[in-house]
Amino acid sequence: MKQPVFTGSGVAIITPFTNDGVDYGALSDLLEFQLRNGTDAVIVCGTTGEAATMSPMERSRTIALVVDKVGGRVPVIAGTGSNCTETAISQSREAVEAGVDGVLVVTPYYNKATQRGLVRHYQAIADRVTKPVILYNVPSRTGVKCTAETYAALAEHPNIAGVKEASGDFALIQRTRELCPEDFYIWSGNDDETAAIMLQGGVGVISVAANVAPEAMHRLTHACLRGDFVTGGRLQQELRRLCEALFWEVNPIPVKTALAMMGKCREILRLPLCEMEESNRERLRKVLADYDLL
After folding, report:
1. Residue 233 lies in a domain
2. Spatial distance between the Cα atoms of 175 and 161, rounded to a whole number of angstroms
3. ∠ CA 109-111-112 to the nearest 5 degrees?
4. Has 122 been annotated as catalytic?
5. Is 136 a catalytic residue?
6. Rounded to whole angstroms, how far apart are CA atoms 251 and 257?
7. Which domain holds residue 90?
8. Residue pLDDT, tens place only, 226-269
9. How far apart are alpha carbons 138 and 162 in whole angstroms?
10. Which one of 69, 164, 185, 256 is the catalytic residue?
11. Residue 41 belongs to what H/E stretch?
């Protein structure tokens, strides 16, 4: 039986920048902040990490630094997806060579794919790496959506661990649990759906909110892992306003703005992302203050 790459709260960590490149000092400090506060895994160079705007060298150095600084204390998972299968294979192999514990591979965007194409895409990647592959289904960004039947076909591969589900489609999650074996694991890809997805058999979350509230997301997921969904649901409700605020503008604009307000990074985003609207910035500051994060 396949084991999950992690259970609980995995942070989809931001990439702090300077005007000239990656701020590796700030990234190291962010990692220690996460680990001190119970984060169960670190996901580097994903959407929240602005990987699409990083050079290949920056991606390689950032993944290597995270692996080194985490030092085996929790699993490290690298975002390695592409709309070119060969590029995804190359990036995944490079991340595995750097020492990651798994790779997160988004569905191909822009050129999209049929369901048969998705199966072949992921099988080709999983055949070429020695660490588990986590699928990433986020149709709002990619324009393509996996079906439960596609998950069932991919679940047969010994190197495919499961999926980060960010479709918002609970019928899909229910159907996936019906068709897939127990060791095809589901992680929530939306912070505000974490408890609900875990109630349906999910094993955790790959979280944006954990960047600013790692201990709270850890407590929420571990309550659910214990089967205490009353507590998990209450904690989910308590985090509602924060989760909502972090998506007032496209991710990761609000979360990076929040971390800058908390003094943990510079407020530098790479185009086409830009600074948060002033009205939203002030609303965000108030929410952070209400959660005692400032």
Report:
1. no
2. 17
3. 60
4. no
5. yes
6. 10
7. 8-224
8. 999 999 999 999 999 999 999 999 999 999 999 999 999 999 99
9. 14
10. 164
11. strand 41-44
Is residue 231 a part of any domain in this protein? no
Question: 122, 136, 151, 185: which is the annotated catalytic residue?
Answer: 136
Domain membership flag for residue 251: no
CATH number at residue 116: 3.20.20.70
CB neighbour list of residue 34: distance below 8 Å, 6 or more residues apart: 11, 13, 42, 210, 214
Strands 8-12 vs 41-44: parallel, antiparallel or unpaired: parallel
Rg (CA), the chain: 18
Domain contains 150: yes
The interaxial angle of helices 278-290 and 253-261, nearest 10 deg, is: 60
The one-letter amino acid at 256: K
Give pLDDT, residue 45. 98
Low-confidence ranges of the chain (pLDDT < 70): none
Contact 107, 113 (CB under 8 A): yes
